[in-house]
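Figure 2 data, in text form.
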Amino acid sequence: MKNFLFLGLIGTTVFLNSCSSSNDDTPINSPNDTPSAQTLFLSKVTTTYLDLPGNPQGNIQTFSYNNQAQLVKMQSQEGSTTFEYSNGKPIKSNTYNNQQQLKYYSEFNYNGDQLVSNKRVSTTADYNGTYEYSYNAQGKLSSSRICNSADCTSTTNELYSYYGDNVLIYTIHIKGNSSFSVRNDYSYDNKLNPYTNLNKYLKIIVGKSDVLSKNNCTIDKNSSNNNGTWQSDKTITYAYEYNGYGFPVKAIGKDNDGKPIVQYDYEYTSL
């Protein structure tokens, strides 16, 4: 599992500026606070990095929804993202810095009910890019190709293979002035992940394994390839605490030596 931050991820963050839920946004963490897992939506993620002795650092990200249970705004110290919808599909996102200045917007294109591309346009050339999505026979995201330059000489290719409803292997290949590849091999528990009720198209746009998968990652084996040979890097092992509906409320990641390096705290709201 990787640190999941919508803000700053390629072609993601978006929300309507008038984005408040018509329901109480009180965090839900006990089995008596919400009627069912189907109405439980992630409202806050607090990330704390524990590998800085005496000076832990982190990030707080909040999620807001409209009265149709659509994610409309994400907010963190880095800025915010808003989403606009049509017929249940996100069609545009706007990403702002922490001064509420527009960094870039993204437009999402569909072929019927399938998201096929995402064009990101920046106020400068820094964030411009085009994303193309491909799917396997089961309709799951199998790859995304990102052109980071107008002539597509600089590209990022992401590949996903699955075991059941979970991403088993995620590989990213980056090609430009220099090229390298990174691979993650995952194992999972049998509980629902915090992003279960997120719009299915947003899961594809985010394109992170912990969002695309049904369950929660318990082991994340990292490896990299810089010279044609795969080298094993670190392995992170996660332990969870859950609420009465099987959603995690806390996750702690430990490194190869069993040292805690990151903690995630999840809060939910019932819509």
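Caption note: The chain has one domain: 14-270.
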